[in-house]
Specification:
This protein is of the alpha/beta class and about 625 residues long. The protein folds into 2 domains: about 1-305 and about 385-475, ANL, N-terminal domain (Rossmann fold, 3-Layer(aba) Sandwich); about 500-615, ANL, C-terminal domain (GMP Synthetase, Chain A, domain 3, 2-Layer Sandwich). It has 18 helices and 32 strands. A 7-stranded mixed beta sheet has the order 5-4-17-16-18-19-20, with helices on both faces. It has a 5-stranded parallel beta sheet with strand order 7-6-8-11-12, sandwiched between helices. Strands 23-24-26-27 form a 4-stranded antiparallel beta sheet, with no helix packed on it. Helix 3 packs antiparallel against helix 4, helix 4 (about 85-100) crosses helix 5 and helix 12 (about 330-340) packs across helix 13 (about 370-380). The model has no long low-confidence stretch (mean pLDDT about 95). Bound molecules: coenzyme A and adenosine monophosphate.
């Protein structure tokens, strides 16, 4: 039997046994004897371990002390730094001592608002070492978003740096953090700031302590024993409202699932080099820049740059070549950006990247054209795979490590062992044939998936409420006749902009606050580069000119949510199309923005609103 099929069959036959067997690849203080436990809603409830020990110390003890654990590549600052597992252990243990000296202990929260530098990775692992719960906040979010996360997580400590480097721009963090601390209701007892030479912060009035000074005084801290179900981290992600959802990940299930995925999904062997070109502020960064490759004894690349412009569209390939990357993971947007600048591959190396075996894509739907271009360029399998912050690791993929080679451009592949998928209609009935429906997954979810939402049990339960017995992914799609799953888009108001998950509801909330906006609607429109971009339709109420209102809307969305939201296209319209019950017809607006035919909905109250927008946008021929 094919290894993938055997794995699926074994998992379905006895999931507890399957995952308990997988758990033997992790070093436990007390090995688990129980798999899934319904009462505590957790995997391996009697297991005890430390995630940092499994990511770092055990490799030092196990013969990998002199192997590179982390390679930091920062093309803009021109820095390249390597850390062996032994060096990583020393850095992490001392960082853990520095954090503990601030009064942080097991179960305390630590917010990490930092750029893509080695200290960020040390800080995450250091929290894991002492049982503190880290919550990394993506650097592209504005102060109100950081403040919301501070208020929700109520951290004892905030870790930051003097600046981020975003493409060729230097982003000073001090004003952002100071503003966030002022906006937050929760008083953060301590702030530590890592000074970067590119731009130093002013610590004159003592708003933050100097990281390096504190580190110099710190004593290395040891790994503390944690229960498998103790939280490892909180990662906030966009929900359907303006309030982010704090996805909580445990220690034990996470370690088992991530280590398993490295070998069986990605086909990576210990000692090889893995690079996920993402950001530690997203789940891809948590799972595949930090934890999984280190659990597996691999070498990770930490890349502080962009696919293009740092300095050019050849940099990704040079990083792969220089570091002998075996498996590479990125978002389709990044490949589209490279292709746009280097369609003919003038910057693609003549060596043809001998170490590279496969490229994995996720974060948004991978369009077949991009996949085909990259396969042609590299001659390697390009594997689209699907997952989400809530799940923490791939749920649909071509499991290269289980010998699977089946691929179909446009599909995210097959269920990964542990996940059983269904496509249901809105009444919860299976959709027949290749019909599109709601994608749901059997409960319980496998190890590694979210075990709750921080201080939001109601929100957590909601994900299991619409289809009893299933987890509702929020994505729509279908299963084709060959068993390939196709994920077509969200069923809610979440959009993916350049692989970044954002909420249009949140953007509407921000725009509604702008003086002179009486109502607004934001939809995700197709975009050649970013996959999707937000497009806003606003109705004016004030006296200012259209240009002034547009400028004010863009500036407010940027200062409230952050540059990453990319709210740049605003149409000031006379009225929004609505149903007779007053619901905004966002699907009609989406069709208009995408230049598609608009069928007048039978429930529409004001058809003239659609006519007027079509005329205004000069798409009246549709
Ligand atoms: N800190 C501060 N600002 C940030 C930021 C960060 N960490 N990340 C993004 N931003 C800013 C950008 O500078 C940009 O600002 P601008 O509007 O002033 O130019 C804005 O947020 C939008 O950023 P982005 O969507 O990344 O667009 P871009 O035009 O700067 O770059 C790509 C386009 C395609 C090169 C880029 O989006 C990219 O690399 N995408 C791949 C994303 C990815 O790997 N996602 C992983 C998820 S798995
Ligand atoms: P995030 O939680 O930020 O990882 O975003 C998860 C969402 O991104 C999913 O629910 C999907 O909507 C989308 N997504 C991620 N990977 C893919 C993919 N391979 N194909 C289609 N959509 C994807």
């Amino acid at each position: 039997m094919h290894e993938y099929e055997k794995s699926i069959a074994d998992n379905i036959a006895d999931p507890d046994r399957f995952w308990l067997e997988a758990s033997s690849e992790i070093d436990w203080i007390a090995a688990p004897t129980i798999g899934w436990d319904e009462d505590s809603n957790s995997w391996f409830p009697d297991g005890q371990l430390n995630s940092c020990y499994n990511a770092v110390d055990r490799h030092v003890d196990g013969g990998r002390a002199d192997q590179n654990a982390v390679i930091y590549e920062s093309p803009v600052t021109g820095r390249r730094q390597t850390f062996t597992y032994r060096e990583l252990q020393a850095e992490v243990a001392r960082t853990a001592g520095m954090i503990a000296a601030q009064g942080v202990g097991k179960g305390d929260r630590v917010i990490i608002y930092m750029p893509m530098i080695p200290q960020t990775l040390f800080a995450m692992l250091a929290c894991a070492r002492i049982g503190a719960i880290h919550s990394v906040v993506f650097g592209g979010f504005a102060p109100p978003e950081l403040a919301k996360r501070i208020d929700d997580a109520e951290p004892r400590l905030l870790l930051t740096a003097s600046c981020g480097i975003e493409g060729q721009k230097v982003i000073p963090y001090q004003p952002l953090v100071v503003e966030s601390l002022a906006q937050a209701r929760h008083p953060v007892p301590a702030v530590l700031l890592f000074q970067r030479e590119t731009l130093r912060a002013d610590l004159g009035d003592g708003w933050a302590q100097d990281w390096s000074e504190q580190l110099a005084k710190a004593k290395p801290a040891e790994c503390v024993p944690l229960m498998s179900s103790d939280p490892l981290y909180i990662l906030y992600t966009s929900g359907t409202t303006g309030t982010p959802k704090g996805v909580v990940r445990d220690n034990g299930g996470h370690a088992v699932a991530l280590e398993w995925s490295m070998r069986h999904v990605y086909g990576l062997k210990p000692g090889e080099c893995f690079w996920a070109a993402s950001d530690v502020g997203w789940v891809v960064g948590h799972s595949y820049i930090v934890y999984a490759p280190l659990f597996a004894g691999a070498t990770v690349v930490l890349y502080e740059g962009k696919p293009v412009g740092t300095p050019d569209a050849g940099e990704f390939w040079r990083v792969i070549e220089r570091n002998r990357v075996s498996v590479f993971f990125t978002a389709p947007t990044a490949i589209r950006a490279i292709r746009k600048e280097d369609e003919d591959g003038a910057l693609y190396p003549a060596s043809n990247l001998p170490s590279l075996r496969a490229v994995f894509l996720a974060g948004e739907r991978a369009d077949p054209d991009t996949i085909k271009w990259l396969e042609k360029r590299t001659g390697r399998p390009v594997i689209d795979h699907w997952w989400q912050t809530e799940l923490g690791w791939p749920a649909l993929a071509t499991c290269a490590g289980l010998g699977d080679v089946r691929r179909k451009a446009g599909s995210a592949g097959f269920p990964v062992p542990g996940y059983q998928f269904h496509v249901l209609d809105d009444d919860g009935k299976p959709v027949s044939g290749e019909g599109v429906g709601n994608i749901v997954i059997d409960c319980p979810l496998p190890p590694g998936c979210f075990k709750g939402l921080w201080s939001n049990d109601e929100g957590f339960q909601k994900a299991f409420a619409s289809y009893p017995g299933y987890y509702e992914t929020g994505d729509a799609g279908f299963c084709d006749a060959d068993g390939f799953m196709h994920v077509m888009g969200r069923t809610d108001d979440i959009i993916n902009v350049a692989g970044h998950r954002l909420s249009t509801g949140q953007m509407e909330g921000a725009l509604a606050e702008v003086d002179g906006v009486s109502e607004c609607a934001v939809i995700g429109a197709d975009d050649m580069l970013k996959g999707m971009i937000p497009v806003a339709f606003v109705v004016a109420s004030g006296q200012q000119s259209e240009a002034e209102l547009v400028t004010a809307c863009i500036a407010h969305a940027r200062s409230e949510i952050g540059a990453v939201a990319s709210v740049k296209t605003i149409h000031v319209v006379g009225a929004l199309p609505k149903t007779r019950s007053g619901k905004i017809l966002r699907s009609s607006l989406r069709s208009i923005a995408n230049g598609q035919d608009v069928t007048m909905p039978s429930t529409i109250e004001n058809p003239d609103a659609i006519e007027a927008i079509l005329a205004q946008l000069d798409v009246s021929d549709h």
